[in-house]
Amino acid sequence: MVPLGGTTAKMKLLQKSQHFWKLLGEKNIFSIIQRVPITFPPTPFKNGMLLSGMCVPDLRGSQGTFSFFSSDSDGDETKFIAGEQTVLRPKGNVSRSRIVGPDNPKGGRMTLPFTLTVSEDGGSALLEIDGGESIHLVVNEYSDWVELTFSAGFGASAAGIAKFYLISTAPHVNLYMTPIHIDPENPSMPISHPEVYAIYLAKKHGKFATMGFSEDTWALNGGVIDERVFFEQAMSIYEEREKMFLDAVHQAKRGLVTTVFDTTDRIQHMFYRYLDPTHPANEGKDTEQWQDAIAQVYEKADELIGKLQPVIDDPESVLMVISDHGFTNFRRCININSWLRDNGYLFMKDENARESGEFFEGVDWTRTKAFALGLTGVFINRRGREKSGIVHEGKDYRDLCKEIAEKLENLIDPESGQRCCRRVAVSQSYFDGPYRFDAPDLLVGWDGGYRYSWECAVGQVMPEVFSNNTRAWSGDHCVDPDVVPGILFCDRALCEADPRLVDIPATVLRLFGQEIPGYMQGHMILPEGAEPGTVSGMIDPGSLEQSGAAPGALIFPPDDRKASGQT
Question: Is 300 part of any domain?
């Protein structure tokens, strides 16, 4: 929930380690950090500014709940995955409904009533929000960011922003609203350090998307919006990000600037099917109009590098362009919980049941030895860790891990006869670190084309193990790292042929003359005092489609992940 005045709601970052820019700040080295994942809520640090990235919620406290208002329904309100449909019942050309906001501390949810009046020619509509502004909407066009202020009474309120898209006015009225983002000019919860930094960016460059996962992939998955509407949204968010990044580069005369651009990731997730004419998600859909969508985004990113080079012409400056993963096809879904059930590792309370509700509703934990949740791996139901753990530590645990790993590595897709798993890593023998006990016990390295099923991600058992992925989300990287290596561009020659992701923070510290702490696993990958040069490795341009990289990139090595933690 949104922590409003007078409530007891609190936010706490559960991350255990400390950010490398905090170490720089303690040595009076200035940093501007923008949109790096897992930085919400923002942790204060000396000598720097930060805008939180992935995991910032929307104003409702979710990771993105869109709204769809439509007169095309015979029922009442409908729920999509990560979205809600509200039925409109027009009287003439006027429809009345409400925008649902965050929880009200007094119970229920705060709402904003609105009136939508369609023009006589049907090409536009007037949206009038109670207590707010009137917005002129044009069919097939986005509105600007609209301020939405929800009142809980007694002076408590929550400020958000959203964009509206009038899809149609006839024969049915269809109106899409993005998730309600926290208003950066009036944040209801901290999204930056210091808090004024988000306000500064909004006042200088205009309102901007603040949600951690800003691009509304679920609205496209659900068919509420189409590819054009999604692409326009994603590129608009990219433009916002570019403005704040270039602002940071100009503001920071010395120090560190780090900005995460998500657009290449989001577009590849949602448009990868265009690279594969036989993809299951293509059935009944356009397969030509957006064939160049991914290329368009990479061209945009390349243009940004061109804009950046004249700004950082100082020979002491170092430029690195980093991707933590590439991309591959996602054609087939695998429900590991269903496989565990079929192989005697997971049991239902009802022995005749073939499926469960979400989050293992109906699973018998007194007999279940293993389960899968999220997109990370398989968890053993360990005594001392899980609430109803039954697997003893020691030999029982090790033997079970080995047994499941060997079986999964030989899992065959019955449709193609292909092995779908490249390798399974047993965490306790493959990784080290103080939090290994909390990690998945088995990390499954899927081959290209395969991924955990959508139902498996939310702890649901389904009747079948395999299914086709028919959603617009047709590309992914939750597979074996060999299939989707990360890339690194650097304007200086590297002294390390096989750099790892964990080497980047260590290298940044050394570039500023700081020692690498003993708890860090990475090391310096640039020669001390190196002169500007070129990257020291290349990949075959023919692998562009699979890796998501561009020719001339240096790939992070796929062979040894003991220290990198890539999965």
Answer: yes
Residue 255 lies in a domain: yes
H-helix segments, 438-478? 454-457
For 282, the 3-state DSSP assignment is helix
* 267 and 221 housed in the same domain: yes
Q: Are 542 and 479 in contact (CB under 8 A)?
A: no
Q: Is position 30 within any domain?
A: no
382 and 409 fall within a common domain: yes
Q: How far apart are CA 397 and CA 393, in angstroms?
A: 5
What are the backbone angles phi and psi of residue 34, rounded to the nearest 5°?
-125, 120
Q: What total of structural domains would you count in the chain?
A: 2
Specify the pLDDT at position 77. 58
369 and 342 in a common domain: yes
> In angstroms, rounded to a whole number, what is the distance separating the alpha carbons of residues 418 and 481?
19
Please tell me the distance from the alpha carbon of residue 434 to that of residue 546, in angstroms, as a whole number. 34
Of 378-392, 513-527, 546-560, minimum mean pLDDT range: 546-560
Distance CA 262, CA 108 (A): 34
Structure tokens at 335: 């429900």
Angle 522-525-528 (CA atoms, 0-180°, nearest 5)? 120
Last-in-domain residue among 271, 292, 317: 317
* Burial readout 93-113 (b: 16 or more C-beta within 10 A, e: otherwise): eebebbbbbbbbbeeeebebe
Report how far Cα 154 is from the mean position of its chain's Cα atoms.
36
Q: Of 425, 441, 476, which marks where a domain is finished?
A: 476
* Residue 250 belongs to domain spanning: 66-317
Within this chain, do residues 370 and 306 fall inside the same structural domain, yes or no? no
Same structural domain, 342 and 285: no
Indicate the DSSP class of residue 178. -
Average pLDDT over residues 504-521: 94
List, edge to edge, every strand of the sheet that includes 256-259: 192-193, 48-51, 31-34, 256-259
Handedness of CA 57, 60, 65, 69 (dihedral sign): negative
> d(Cα 184, Cα 201) in Å, to the nearest integer?
8
Asked, for residue 184, whether it belongs to a domain, the answer is yes
Residues 313 and 251 in one domain: yes
Q: What is the pLDDT of residues 88-139, one digit of tens each?
A: 999 999 999 999 999 988 788 999 999 999 999 999 999 999 988 899 999 9
**How far, rounded to the nearest angstrom, does the alpha carbon of residue 460 sit from its chain's CA centroid?**
21
CA-closest candidate to residue 511, choices 317, 257, 314, 310: 317
Q: Checking DSSP bridges between strand 466-468 and strand 475-476, what pairing results, if any?
A: unpaired
- CA 250 vs. chain centroid, Å, equals 28
- Predicted TM-score of the model (pTM): 0.90
